């Protein structure tokens, strides 16, 4: 009898996951028909969040890693040798943007402290725009409670995903910098399968050593290396990229349950306000850096946007907006977060800036 009950629970969970993914796909398709920017991700996220608000919603555990693997390969393939040279030329600006973005976490920390009721250290890790998974991992390593960090970073990600794509679609005005444009490689299925296997192996390896966001980093670096050497065996089939967007959107949407949001109304509100403040601050910094460097303003804004690397770089791909440059900004910021976030907090505490 116990065995049958377990089977029913497993079947129920499977049906819930399949139903959630089906609804997420439908939401993405509707958004696609409406020609929304980042349609598959936003549509999937909104549809899944609507389901999760009132009913059980879940996605298979492998959905997000699989989506990140596909996106890592798709984005990495844009790095041809000439594009790498162009991105390398922008490296001083990219490094400055990464450091300034991380320091911006100190600027919005007081908002999360006063409005959200967080202590200074937790507010800092909740405020740094390093990406959801990266900041949760770094918070756990620093001994910070991950629950408020998860909520704050999730709320920021939702706001940024909903606001930045339409804003930048209007701002870009259909102009593109040809220095960062590449021809999409043809799809050769045996080569794509080998590429996916290699990306999965690197993702597993990165996960084993505790690297933050290994499922995108590993495949992305693999594709970058092969593309730069002109040895890329295949491009990534675009419907797979759309499916990856659905997986990422659904994995965000299932978190937005009634208990998750209403259980911490004060922090959710503080996270919303801090996201607006942080976005305005980083947009202003991005415009200044773009004007100084001569880089395209929309791409620099997206490169400094306080969303996660997967979400912001796939936005660049959806808008055909200097994908390698935007990815370079977010790769650098993510790498620096792993290295300098904890030291910055220690320095801030000594200087009395941590609240």
From TrEMBL:
Transmembrane stretches, start-end: 36-54, 66-87, 93-112, 124-144, 156-175, 187-206, 236-256, 268-301
Key word Lipid metabolism present: no
Chloroplast among keywords: no
Keyword line: Membrane, Transmembrane, Transmembrane helix
Protein name: AbrB family transcriptional regulator
Organism: Plastoroseomonas hellenica
């Amino acid at each position: 009898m116990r065995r049958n009950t377990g089977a029913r629970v497993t079947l129920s969970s499977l049906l819930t996951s399949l139903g959630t993914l089906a609804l997420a796909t439908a939401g993405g398709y509707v958004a696609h028909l409406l020609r929304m920017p980042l349609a598959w991700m936003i549509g999937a996220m909104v549809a899944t969040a609507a389901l999760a608000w009132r009913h059980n919603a879940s996605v298979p555990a492998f959905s997000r890693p699989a989506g990140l693997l596909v996106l890592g390969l798709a984005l990495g393939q844009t790095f041809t040798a000439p594009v790498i040279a162009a991105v390398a030329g922008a490296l001083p600006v990219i490094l400055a943007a990464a450091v300034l973005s991380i320091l911006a976490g100190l600027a919005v920390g007081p908002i999360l402290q006063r409005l959200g009721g967080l202590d200074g250290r937790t507010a800092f890790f909740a405020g740094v725009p390093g990406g959801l998974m990266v900041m949760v991992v770094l918070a756990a390593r620093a001994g910070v409670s991950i629950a408020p960090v998860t909520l704050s970073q999730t709320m920021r990600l939702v706001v940024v995903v909903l606001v930045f794509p339409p804003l930048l679609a209007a701002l870009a005005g259909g102009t593109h910098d040809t220095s960062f444009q590449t021809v999409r490689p043809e799809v050769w299925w045996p080569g794509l399968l080998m590429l996916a296997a290699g990306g999965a192996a690197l993702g597993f390896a990165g996960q084993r050593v505790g690297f933050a966001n290994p499922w995108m980093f590993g495949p992305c670096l693999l594709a970058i290396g092969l593309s730069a050497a002109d040895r890329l065996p295949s491009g990534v089939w675009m419907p797979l990229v759309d499916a990856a967007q659905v997986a990422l959107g659904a994995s965000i949407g299932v978190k937005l349950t009634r208990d998750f949001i209403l259980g911490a109304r004060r922090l959710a509100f503080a996270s919303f306000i801090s996201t607006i403040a942080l976005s305005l601050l980083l947009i202003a910094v991005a415009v200044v850096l773009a004007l100084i460097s001569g880089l395209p303003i929309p791409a620099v804004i997206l490169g400094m946007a306080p969303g996660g690397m997967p979400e912001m770089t796939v936005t660049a791909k959806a808008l055909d907006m200097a994908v390698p440059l935007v990815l370079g900004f977010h790769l650098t910021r993510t790498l620096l977060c792993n290295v300098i976030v904890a030291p910055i907090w220690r320095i801030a505490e000594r200087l009395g800036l941590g609240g």
